[in-house]
Amino acid sequence: MRSSKGSAVAVALAAGIGVAAVPAQADARSATDGPVTITATGHHNGQVRIDVTESGENYLLIDPTRPGTRCATPNGRTVSIPKDRPPGPGSETFTACVDIMYGAQRQWDMLRDWLGRSGPPGNGRNAPAVYDPSGRGPIWGGYVMFGRMPTGGAPATTLDLVGHQFGHLVYQSTPGGTGSGNESGGLFEGASDIFGVLTDHYADHPQNRPNYLIGDSPSLMGDRPLRYMYNPSLLGDPNCYSSAIPSTEVHAAAGPLNHWFYLLAEGANPGGGKPSSPVCGGDPAALTGIGIRQAGRIFMGALQRKTAQWSYAKTRVASVAAAIDLFGPGSAECAITKAAWRAVSVQEQPGEASCAGSTPSPAPAGP
Ligand SMILES: [Zn+2]
Fold first, then answer.
1. pLDDT digits (tens, 9 = 90+) for 139-197
2. Where are the beta strands (DSSP E) in 9-154?
3. Where is the Peptidase M4 domain (predicted)?
4. What total of structural domains would you count in the chain?
C-alpha cells in the first residue's frame, strides 16, 4: 500500500508464517460449533457471502474450510458477529473483517482453482488476519496486517488490497524469500498487486467489477486508485525498467512488473472497454494478451523458480522457463512472455531459454 506519492505505508507482515505465537484462546471452538455461510455487508464490497463458524449466538469469523483463515483483533481474539446484530456503518472492525474474510476466501479459491496452490503459504494453512485501526499491529507474530488508509481513514480492505496483503505471504513462501533492496522490494510489491488483481478477477463481484487498478474504492482515495497496472506512469510511477529502479520507492518500483503483467494478460490494445497500455520504446509494435488466468500461471511458475535476491532480469528468465514448462517452447505464450518483457524494457538475458523450440510434427496422413 502507499499513502501518497513516494511515502510507503509499512506493511507489517511479520517474518515467517508460523502461527505458534497466536494466543491459544483465539481459535477455541466448542464441539457444537459448525460451518455456515452467511450474507454480510463489508465496508467496500456491499453484500457478500462468507464462510464462518456458528457458535451459540455469534458467528465467529473463523473459516471452517480454509485452515487458519480468520480475522482477529490485535489481542488475538477472533472477531465475532452477533447473530441478532449484523454489522453496519459504525462497526468498523466488523465491516473491515467481512471484507477481509471475503477477500481471503476468494483468494484461497483462486489459488486452488487457477494456480494449483494450497492457500497463500502453499501448505494448506493460512496466517490469521489482524485488523488494527491504530495501525500498530499486535505483539505476536505470523499475521497479515490490515489497517486504515492514512488518507481519509477508511479501512484498507478493498478486495484487491486483501489479495495484495495475503499475496505477500505467497511471495514469502516461495523459494528465495523476499530479499532486500528496492528492486527486490518492488518485485515483492508488484507480485502482491498481481495476486490482488487475480483475486479481483476470480471473484468477479457484480458490484465491484474486476480491473487492473489497485485500491480503487471511492472511500479510499477518491477518484484515483493507489496504482494503475496498465499504465503506472498515470501516477508518476515508472512504466519501464531502468537503472533507476534499484533506488526507486518499492511500490513505485513495482511499476514495470505490474505493467508487464497487464501486457501479458491483456495485451497493448485489448479493446472491449479495457484500457490500452503503452509499450516502452514502441517495441513490439503489437502485443496480444493470453488472458489473466494463463498469465497468473506463468507468474506463479516464475515465483516457484525464485532465488535469493530476486531481480527483474531473473524474473524474466524464470517466467520464460515457466511459460515453456506450461505451454511448450514453440508456444505463443512463450513468445508473448518475452514480448511483454521487451515492452517494459527488460531485455533478453544470458542463459534465457529460447521460444524457438521444435513444434510437434503433424500426425501422418493416410489410412
Ligand atoms: Zn504491499
1. 888 899 999 987 668 899 999 999 999 999 999 999 999 989 999 999 999 999 999 99
2. 34-41, 47-55, 58-60, 71-72, 80-82, 129-131, 144-146
3. 39-170
4. 2
Report the CATH number at residue 190.
1.10.390.10
In this structure, the chain runs to a length of 367
Which amino acid, residue 1?
M
Q: Are residues 329 and 242 in the same domain?
A: yes
Q: How far is the CA of 282 from the centre of ligand 1 (A)?
A: 30
Percent of the chain scoring above 70 in pLDDT:
86
Q: 258: CA distance to ligand 1 center in Å?
A: 13
Q: Are residues 152 and 88 in the same domain?
A: yes
Same domain, 153 and 201: no
Q: What is the mean pLDDT of the chain?
A: 88
Q: How many Å lie between the centroid of ligand 1 and the Cα of residue 117?
A: 20
CA of 186 to the centre of ligand 1 (A): 9
Confidence bin at 6 (pLDDT 50/70/90): very low
Q: Based on the fold, state whether residues 214 and 346 are members of the same structural domain.
A: yes
CA of 37 to the centre of ligand 1 (A): 29
Contacting residues for 22 by C-beta, under 8 A, at least 6 apart? 72, 76, 128, 140, 142, 143
